[in-house]
Design a protein that fits this description.
about 140 residues, 3 helices, about 35% strand, 9 strands, alpha+beta
């Protein structure tokens, strides 16, 4: 988890989440000076800047494992993390990095790419420009 979090911080991330029949994409671009993350609903077209890193499933796992009540169960594909005040999440590991997750109690899946998707980066820049323009109005 720590190696994955270091990759997240250094390279950024594109996370794809499928939940309740909708597909969401999150992007985190560590090279942006102020607003580094955004959330896009590919089904509705909704999009917004993200100001809390706990939108990202990887960061939720990091928080869980840092919790005094954390529990880890090793699985064939990775591990299940749980802690008080968190729903358990199964994380999938390949080549030493967390590459995906799924809900244990709820039906959702996530895939992690340790890179910034260029299209989503453009959307992030557009949202940032819109926010900054609203300050000038």
């Amino acid at each position: 988890m720590l190696a994955s979090y270091d990759e997240f911080e250094a390279k950024g991330m594109t996370e794809t989440v499928v939940s309740d029949g909708e597909t969401w994409k999150l992007v985190m671009d560590p090279e942006q000076p102020d607003y580094q993350a955004a959330l896009f609903n590919l089904d509705t077209g909704d999009r917004e800047l993200v100001f809390e890193t706990d939108y990202f499933t990887l960061f939720v796992g990091y928080l869980m494992l840092d919790s005094p009540s954390s529990m880890v169960e090793i699985t064939d594909a990775g591990f299940i993390a749980s802690a008080d005040d968190f729903n358990p999440i199964e994380y999938f590991v390949e080549d030493g990095l967390v590459v995906g997750a799924k809900g244990v109690d709820f039906d959702w899946t996530a895939e992690f790419k340790y890179r910034v998707d260029p299209e989503l980066q453009e959307g992030l820049l557009e949202l940032t420009a819109e926010l900054l323009a609203s300050f000038e109005e």
